């Protein structure tokens, strides 16, 4: 089933269930539009800072999160709106990929983009830039509810991303979304079949209610 999913499908099903704020904003883009990302959220909350604290390792919680990633998990970094940091790069991608992480999602920036693209590791980001997080931001909590790009994400939520963007499926409605997606997939298949056969769009829509 998972290999047949796409963000527009999940977004439509979530809308039908009354969850209309589960798609991240359009500025959150994949580094590689040919790669799909699907997995479980591991969340991290960033705090803006404006200087490095002497003697402090600002990467402590970041390191702990990446080192504890299980296969299929996706680190979700909630960096806020400042656009001051690129918390993710080649080294974190390498460490996460070795642990069979399913990808990474952040509303902050990403750097080392050519190296990450060459790795084939899925990264969805809020921009590209070289700015290290040291002296600009640090993780203050992990595995807590966060808002990434304005969308609430809880640890364990299902995160799906493709060329159209990213959708977060809350665990509470996951079973209903899976059922609804299966039904809509069948309807879309029949809709496409009839459209390709030349049946008018209005006729097909009135029959299946899918557009």
From TrEMBL:
Mg(2+) binds at residue 112. GO terms for molecular function: metal ion binding. InterPro entries: RraA/RraA-like, RraA/RraA-like_sf. Its cofactor is Mg(2+). CDD domains: RraA_family. Keywords: Magnesium, Metal-binding. It comes from the Bacteria. Pfam families: RraA-like. Substrate binds at residues 89-92, 111. PANTHER family: 4-HYDROXY-4-METHYL-2-OXOGLUTARATE ALDOLASE 3-RELATED, BLR3842 PROTEIN. This is RraA family protein. It comes from Teichococcus wenyumeiae. The lineage of its organism: Bacteria, Pseudomonadati, Pseudomonadota, Alphaproteobacteria, Acetobacterales.
């Amino acid at each position: 089933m998972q290999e047949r999913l796409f963000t527009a499908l999940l977004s439509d099903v979530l809308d039908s269930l009354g969850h209309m704020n589960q798609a991240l904003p359009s500025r959150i883009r994949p580094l590689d539009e040919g790669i799909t990302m699907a997995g479980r959220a591991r969340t991290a909350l960033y705090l803006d800072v404006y200087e490095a604290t002497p003697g402090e390792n600002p990467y402590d919680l970041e390191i702990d999160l990446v080192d504890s990633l299980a296969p299929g998990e996706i680190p979700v970094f909630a960096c806020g709106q400042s656009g001051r940091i690129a918390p993710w790069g080649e080294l974190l991608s390498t460490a996460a990929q070795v642990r069979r992480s399913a990808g990474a999602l952040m509303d902050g920036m990403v750097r080392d983009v050519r190296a990450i693209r060459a790795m084939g590791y899925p990264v969805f980001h809020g921009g590209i830039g070289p700015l290290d997080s040291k002296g600009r931001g640090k993780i203050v909590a992990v595995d807590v509810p966060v808002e990434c790009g304005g969308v609430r994400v809880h640890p364990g939520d299902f995160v799906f991303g493709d060329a159209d963007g990213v959708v977060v499926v809350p665990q509470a409605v996951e079973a209903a979304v899976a059922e609804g997606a299966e039904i809509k997939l069948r309807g879309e298949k029949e809709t496409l079949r009839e459209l390709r056969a030349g049946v008018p769009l209005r006729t097909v829509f009135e029959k299946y209610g899918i557009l």
